[in-house]
Write a structure and sequence with these properties.
- The structure is a homodimer of 345-residue chains.
- Chain A is 46% helix and 11% strand.
- Chain A has a single domain, classed as Alpha-Beta Barrel (TIM Barrel), CATH 3.20.20.210.
- Chain A is globular.
- In chain A, the strands form two sheets. A seven-stranded parallel beta sheet of chain A has the order 1-4-5-6-7-8-9.
- The first copy, chain A, is of the alpha/beta class and 345 residues long.
- The first copy, chain A, starts with 9 loop residues before the first helix and ends in a 7-residue tail after the last helix.
- At the A-B interface, helix 10 and helix 12 of A face helix 10 and helix 12 of B.
Chain lengths: 345, 345
C-alpha cells in the first residue's frame, strides 16, 4: 500500500493529474452488502443506527480497505443524513428511503433548517475524525454529500423511483419554488461538507447521481448552477472535489466547468472519448459497469485492466460507473482492485 | 397538411436531409393511452387483440393523425409481436409483458423459428396495407421493429425491468449463446421488416431502446453489429430507416455508422451538439423530454419551438426523446405538434 510520497497518496496525486506509481482504485458503495463482514455488522443494527454510530460506521468504512486494499476510504453514511437534519423525516425501508411528507410548498421550503453539522450531525464528523486516526495517513478519507438536485429528487416525492419525475414536475410547474429549495439545499450541503473538511476529510465527492436525467439546458439551470455554488463555498485548502453524475455522456463538458477537479463518469461513454472531450482540465474517475462484476472473475480482471489502460495513467482513478451491486461476489471486487497492480503508468 | 411535393411528404424529405416547407413532427407511441379515443377502443379488447385486429389497429393508428395532425402514421403494434411468432409465449399484463419461459439455453435458441411474416403475422401487413389505402398518400406510413439487442432484453428474463440486467449477465457468462440468439432475432426482424416494406411501409423505425445501457464497446459488439445486419438486409427501395436508442449520448457517432438515415435521439444531449457530432451524415429526430408534456401548455409549446429551432430545419424531424407518457394531457400533445407551424425552415 506504500505510496512514493506518504504526504501525497496516489489518489490525491491522481486528482491533481500528477504522476502516480500506479492508478489508484476505490469503488462507490464499497462499504456495503456485498461484504459478509458488512452484513454481520448490519444484522445487529438498523441502517440508520449504523450511520449514527461512529464506531460501527468506522468499522464498515474500513472493511474494503482491510479486505480488498482499496486506495481510499469513503466514510460510511447516506446522502439523506443532512436532509434529515434539515427537518425532513425519512424512513429507511428495505425498498429504499421513504419521505412521509414530501416537500412541495413554499411553507415547507421556508421551514427547512440549514443545520450546523457540529450540532445536528456530529456523528458524521466523528466518523471522519476516527477514520483519520485509524488510517494514520495510509490512504485518504473521502467525505461526501448529495448535490442539491439529487437531494431534491428524494424529498419532493415519497418514494425513490418517483423522485426524478416529481422533481421535473416541480421544475415545470413551480420553477421558482424548486430554485428556493435548491438554494436551501445548497447552503446545507456546503455547510455539511465544510464540517467534514474541518473534521479531516481529504477528498470530497459530490454525488449528483440523478442529474443525468435532465436535458443539458435543465442540467445547467437546476443542477450545475448549484454544484458550482457548493464547490465555490468549500473551504478548499487544496482538497480535491470529485463530481459524479450517472448518465453524464451528454453533459461532460458542462460538468468540467463546475469547478470540480475530477469527473466521476458512468460506463455509457468511453473513458478515452471522455478524455478527448475534457482534455486536461480535469481528472477522470471510473467507469466500469458495476454489472460486469457479476460476470466471471477473469472477465472482471480483463475489463478492469482495459479501463486502467484506457485511463492512460495520469489523472485517472479506477472506479465503477455506479455503486457496486449488493450481489457482487467479493472475489470479483478483489479482481477489480487487483487490476490496477503490476501496470506502470 | 399539404406538402410542396405530394410524391415526397415532408417527413421523407427530412429523412433525406432535403428542404422542407416546415419541420415534420410525429410522436413515439402517438397511438396510445393519452387519447380518450384510444382508451375507448382499448376498453373493448385486450392489448393483444388490438394488435391482431387490423380494423381496430388501423383506427387507433389514425387517431393522432386525425386529432392532432401529425406528419406520419406509425402502425399500431408491439415490438414483441414478431417474437411471439418466433415461438416465445408472452403475456401482456397491465405491468408490461411477461415471458413465462425465458430464453436461456442453446436448445431454446435453436428451437426458435424464423417466421414468415405473410404466414405468422399477416395482420401486421394488413394494418399497413389498410393504412396506405386510408391515407392515400396524405402522410407516410411508418413500419417498425425492435432491434435484436432490445428484443433480447425482453425474452431472456421474465419481466421487463430485469431484462437489461439479465441480457448483460448472458453477455458476460455466455456471450456465444447471446450472439446466436441475436443472430436469430436479426433474421426474424429483417424478414419482418421486409414484409412490412412489401406491404407498403414508407419509412422504417428500428427501436434499439435499451442499447443505451451498454458500454460503447458492448454496444458495438452486441447491438450495433445487428442493427447493421438488419439495415443491410432490408429491400430498401429508397425507404428511409430511423434508428432510436434511449440514452444515446455516448454512442452517437457509432450509431451514425449503422446505415440508418436518421438517428432518433433522447433529451439527455443537445440537438445542436448532436448535429455538430454527426455532421450531415444523417438526419436527426427528437428530442424533447416526454415529461415536459406533463407541464403547462405554454411551456410545452415554447420548448418544442426551441427544439425546432435547434434542429435547424433541414434534416430534422420533431419528436419526443422517448414515447409519449400515458398521463399526457391531449392539449399538450397538440401544442407539441403545433410548435412546428408558422416557422419557415
Amino acid at each position: 500500500m506504500a505510496n512514493t510520497n506518504p504526504n501525497a497518496p496516489r489518489l490525491i496525486l491522481a486528482c491533481r493529474r500528477q504522476p502516480v506509481d500506479r492508478t489508484p482504485v476505490w469503488m462507490m458503495r464499497q462499504a456495503g452488502r456485498y461484504l459478509q463482514e458488512y452484513r454481520t455488522v448490519r444484522s445487529r443494527v438498523s441502517f440508520l443506527d449504523l450511520c449514527r454510530t461512529p464506531d460501527l460506521a468506522v468499522e464498515v468504512s474500513l472493511q474494503p480497505y482491510r479486505l480488498l486494499g482499496v486506495d481510499a476510504v469513503i466514510m460510511f453514511s447516506d446522502i439523506l443524513i443532512p436532509v434529515m437534519a434539515m427537518g425532513v423525516p425519512i424512513d429507511f425501508t428495505e425498498e429504499g428511503p421513504r419521505v412521509s411528507d414530501p416537500i412541495r410548498t413554499e411553507t415547507q421550503v421556508a421551514a427547512l433548517d440549514v443545520p450546523d453539522p457540529d450540532i445536528e450531525t456530529p456523528f458524521v464528523l466523528d466518523i471522519i475524525r476516527k477514520l483519520r486516526r485509524e488510517l494514520n495517513g495510509a490512504v485518504p478519507v473521502i467525505g461526501f454529500a448529495g448535490a442539491p438536485w439529487t437531494l431534491a429528487t428524494y424529498i419532493v416525492a415519497n418514494g425513490k423511483s418517483a423522485g426524478v419525475a416529481s422533481a421535473k414536475s416541480m421544475m415545470l410547474h413551480s420553477p421558482d419554488l424548486l430554485h428556493r429549495l435548491l438554494e436551501k439545499l445548497t447552503l446545507s450541503v456546503t455547510g455539511y461538507l465544510n464540517g467534514q473538511i474541518d473534521a479531516g476529510a481529504q477528498v470530497i465527492q459530490l454525488f449528483d447521481t440523478w442529474a443525468g436525467e435532465l436535458s443539458p439546458s435543465d442540467y445547467e439551470e437546476f443542477a450545475l448552477r448549484y454544484e458550482r455554488h457548493v464547490i465555490e463555498g468549500l473551504k478548499r485548502k487544496g482538497i480535491p472535489v470529485i463530481l459524479y453524475v450517472n448518465g453524464c455522456a451528454g453533459i461532460l463538458e458542462r460538468m468540467a466547468s463546475s469547478g470540480a477537479d475530477v469527473l466521476s463518469i458512468d460506463w455509457r461513454l468511453d473513458l478515452s472519448d471522455a478524455r478527448r472531450r475534457v482534455g486536461n482540465r480535469v481528472a477522470l474517475q471510473g467507469n466500469l459497469d458495476p454489472q460486469v462484476l457479476l460476470g466471471p472473475r477473469e472477465r472482471v480482471f480483463q475489463l478492469a485492466r482495459q479501463t486502467v489502460r484506457d485511463g492512460g495513467g495520469a489523472g485517472h482513478i479506477l472506479n465503477l460507473g455506479h455503486g457496486i451491486l449488493p450481489n457482487t461476489p467479493v472475489e470479483n471486487a478483489r479482481a477489480f482492485v487487483e487490476a490496477t497492480q503490476g501496470l506502470s503508468t
